[in-house]
Write a structure and sequence with these properties.
Elements lengths: L4 H12 L3 E3 H9 L3 H8 L1 H14 L7 E3 L8 H10 L3 E4 L2 H7 L14 H19 L2 E4 L5 H11 L5
Parallel strand pairs: 1-2, 3-4
């Protein structure tokens, strides 16, 4: 959350011409409501189930870009599925940068708490080892633009259209 996944995916799409599969968008479309509403009406567990189903539905005909929410790695099956689909790239940023990027937190269901900053720190602490274990490539986005991150991914993985 806050690392620029969706924006970087759009830049990669322009650079490479590959289709983008965004699991949050797939879930919102399947359930006919925005992610925030899914969390508030159906709960996080239902969202996570839909996230797993969305990953299972992805059957790319060729090279593609797949964007998941930051919690996709909470289910080991999702990590296996992502690895089956290709190279797993993890985008990170330092805590002060994430706090700044995630203000205001109105459209972030997991940050609807009394202390969003503490929630960001807790989520990062809990998930960081999972991100590290799942990632084939990790890029720190703290001081990079979305275009620079996309270019870094392209160069690091020697990707061509």
């Amino acid at each position: 959350m806050g690392t620029g996944k969706s924006s970087v995916a759009r830049h990669l799409e322009k650079l490479l011409g590959w289709p983008v599969f965004d699991t949050d968008g797939m879930i919102a479309e399947a359930l006919g409501m925005p992610i925030a509403e899914i969390f508030s009406k159906l709960g996080e567990e239902r969202f996570r189930t839909e996230e797993t189903l969305a990953l299972e539905r992805i059957q790319p005909a060729g090279r593609s870009i797949i964007v998941t929410g930051g919690g996709a790695i909470l289910r080991p099956h999702n990590v296996v599925r992502l690895s089956e689909l290709g190279t797993v790239v993890c985008l990170t940023a330092d805590l002060p940068t994430l706090r700044e990027r995630l203000k205001p937190a109105a459209n972030r269901p997991l940050l609807q708490s009394e202390n969003p900053d503490a929630t960001i720190e807790r989520l990062l602490r809990e998930r960081e080892p999972l991100y590290e274990a799942a990632a084939d490539l990790t890029i720190d986005t703290t001081s990079l633009t979305h275009a620079q991150v996309a270019e870094s991914i392209r160069e690091s993985l020697a990707l061509t259209p």
